[in-house]
Amino acid sequence: MSKHVEIKLDPITDGIIDDMAKENAYCTDRLMRIIATDGSDRITDFIEAEYIMKTLKATKNRHCGAYDSENGSIGGFILQDTSEDKEFVVIFNENKVFDMDGECLFVGSMLVMKIEDDYWIGLTDEEMARVKEMLDGQKCTRINENGPFSALLLS
After folding, report:
1. Among 3-12, 51-60, 117-126, the range of highest mean pLDDT
2. End-to-end Cα, the chain, rounded Å
3. Which structural domain, as residue segments, surrounds residue 5?
4. What is the mean pLDDT of the chain?
5. Any idea what the Cα angle at residue 135 is, between residues 130 and 137, rounded to 5°?
6. 136 and 91 in a common domain
7. Sorting pLDDT into bands at 50, 70 and 90, what band is 60?
8. Rounded to whole angstroms, how far apart are CA atoms 123 and 39?
9. For residues 32 and 44, what is the distance between their CA atoms, to the nearest angstrom?
10. How many domains does the chain have?
11. Which residues, at least 6 apart from 148, have a Cβ–Cβ distance to it below 8 Å?
12. pTM
């Protein structure tokens, strides 16, 4: 049985932990990611991912069956990578969706996770690159009074 010491300044859980070495090794190469429509991205953790999803919850909204809250609403879709037989969940604030020239567009940032065995998990660097590539295929450039911007085409 594998044992290691885990100290997170939590009197309830700190101490010697059994059989966590394999799980910890598996999790270190998978990271939660936030990707923006302008191409920038950053790493986040499950705590922030949970906060984002809880903040964007509540009741039915106007677009695509999303859910309203005071801070926004959950919008999302599944990206399917058929070449690798992988599925990714893309979550965004549905309140940032708008219509322009008859198209349904989104501008902002998105939380991205992988679906594996009915669980949402983080992405490897290779999966992140693939997700960005697939999202790039759904992007378009539009112009407003401030100049050009990248948007994700939803319809």
Report:
1. 117-126
2. 52
3. 1-27
4. 79
5. 100
6. yes
7. very low
8. 17
9. 5
10. 2
11. 141, 142
12. 0.72
